[in-house]
Amino acid sequence: MGILEGKRLLITGVLMDSSIAFHVAKVAQEEGAEVVLTSFGRTMKITQTISRRLPTTPPVIELDVTNQDDLDTLAERTKEHVDSLDGVLHSIGFAPQGAFDFLGGTWEDASTALHTSAYSLKALAVGALPLMQDGGSIVGLTFDAKFAWPVYDWMGVAKAAFESTNRYLARDLGPKRVRANLVAAGPIRTTAAKSIPGFEQFERVWGARAPLGWDVNDPIPAARACVALLSDWFPATTGEIVHVDGGVHAMGQ
After folding, report:
1. Model's pTM, two decimal places?
2. Which of 3, 108, 150, 156 has the greatest CB tally within 10 Å of its CB?
3. Measuring CA to CA, how many Å separate 49 from each of 3, 44, 56, 69, 74?
4. Which domains are seen in the chain, by residue range?
5. From the candidates 152, 168, 176, 194, which is the catalytic residue?
């Protein structure tokens, strides 16, 4: 039996098979979970196509985390495929190009990044909560927000808000036996990462700084950490950030 045997998971963020979320879904299925994916708009067909590369092709439901109607009906529409949920993966982030210029970015740039990349964690949790009556686990993906990284700018601010949101979720969902944790992954060469101007700066230095080394083409370590947190193996852990970055977070310059 796998560590997710009998679990039912809602997984966001599967865009390509290079996505961390794709590998979370793959490892989760291999560990016994039943998976439902989300996508929206023009990416729906892409997600449906990529989902066929998983061991078992899961259903894909519509979810734009900035659309309140989608959020209000999320539990009802998910219930068409599974009776309940044991876990949710938040793998969602977006910022307009202007947000990658800290001093030049407008409030519209910053607010879009904050809404889509931070507030959405709370919104997704609330939307899924009616199906988590027996407790469960919410896991999000972050990029260590303790530092002012090159080029990350307002997305870095959004990630700091995201990490704070996780702590408040841990506080408010704990009495409902729902855990909230994050995985801080090192840079992975995903479609989303390629949209960040100057992302190659991370690629150049990360492997040299990581005591364990780092492969920007390998999303599996981060995916396995997410799966572990979605399982019952961390029953008393919430509000935590697990770093899967080769050890860079613990090193000096």
Report:
1. 0.95
2. 156
3. 27, 9, 13, 25, 22
4. 8-250 (3.40.50.720)
5. 152
